[in-house]
Amino acid sequence: MGAGVSNWVLARAVSLEGQLGVVSGTGAEAIMAGRLRSGDDCGHARRALAAFPDQDVAARIVAAYFVENPADRRSARMPRQHVLRDPEELIQDTVAANFVEVFLAKEGHDNPVGFNLLTKIQLPVLASLYGAMLAGVDVIIMGAGIPREVPAILDRLAGHDEVSMALQVEGATAEDNFRTHLSPRSVLCGAPLELRRPAFYPIVSSNVLALTMARKASGRVDGFVIEGPTAGGHNAPPRGGSSLDADRQPVYGPKDAVDVAKIRELGVPFYLAGGYGESGKVREALALGAAGVQVGTLFAFCRESGLLHSIKEKALSVASQGIGKVITDAFASPTGFPFKVLSLEGTLSEVAEYLRRPRGCNLGFLRRIYKREDGEVGYRCPAEPASSWLAKGGAPEELEGRKCLCNGLLANLGLARERRGGYLEQPLLTVGDCFRQLKAFVVGEGGSYSAKDVLDYLLRDCATTATPA
Fold this sequence. Notes:
The protein is an alpha/beta fold and 469 residues long. The chain has helices spanning 8-16, 28-37, 44-49, 55-65, 88-106, 125-134, 150-157, 184-187, 207-216, 260-264, 281-287, 297-300, 309-320, 351-356, 386-391, 405-411, 451-459, and strands spanning 21-24, 113-118, 139-143, 163-166, 179-182, 199-204, 224-227, 270-273, 292-294, 326-329, 339-342, 368-371, 377-380.
């Protein structure tokens, strides 16, 4: 769902209807800081921080980021970029931000709430998981990578024990052992004696990956989300090679299809994702043995989602006309994974807007970690200035078409940053191939719809209760 789109408001609305609302943890610390510097509408972030176990940390965060006077907001600070050895304050910010999002999603009810992270964004993972667990999260969902170490990490975090996780470092050898660490007891005071270990559902795109996670993960895997290449956000690269079609989109084939019968043999619940945002698809998934479906695009444009109202209006207008091109961009993401983008005027999907933006990497969530000549780690992003990327040993061919997803996704939420020189960061929308299905929800000019409307649509022909995520 992208950073902040599946926010606490949307997750809470879905959970209140008896389904699994899922909070996105991507960039949570930047989003929390952005909300506070924008005045903290209705005081939600500060109310959640008032329930944070370490009140000294909560008070520091409010003092550092909260800006009440709109005239002061331009100069308000934002969190630093993550590095291998993060300063303690950034770790605390990350723990607290994810606590805030889950706390608000769970506030006032006992229904389950899920939490989604990108495995590719490696450095904040441990602190993000711990923050979500402090707030009592029920399910952890992780994709865009192979999170084999996460089950054992969840076990240890439940006891506030020190944890570490291996890092994927470009240029590293078998002799290297680059890891990120978190010592919960040293960064926070006042945490509860023991936390509940949430269920863990990795997102997989193949039978091989599901089998690997089931047999070789560091601990209990409670189920899977099986995601196909029609889903929004990052898609797995084609297993059959890297050929492109006439529109320069990756070509997926039979090797990318998941054998659901083999998934059933693993004996754990699984949810189907990618192309399941249509009426009748939940019933179809249940008939295949799935526990339910995961749906993103239909919820992304409902009233409760974190997208700016103006962006929703523009996208829904396009959808209502039965148009709107969804591109699986093989080059946009700095990660190297294909990334689904909605072609929409005024966003970075347009060539003119992409060329107008000065290249830069000032948030750094999707930076790649690489081994420098001195044996230490460095950080580089193919969306940064070409001279900087090349000076760090990056390959020239990696520069083509790379977009700053970090800033684009924050701009989607109304948290666009103004660069030196006056350039204001522009949005970049990710949706699934079922985007045009939104036409069913738009009635008249300026029509809108709720999360409940989506659930009613998905479940209207199901005799059995399912669990869309």
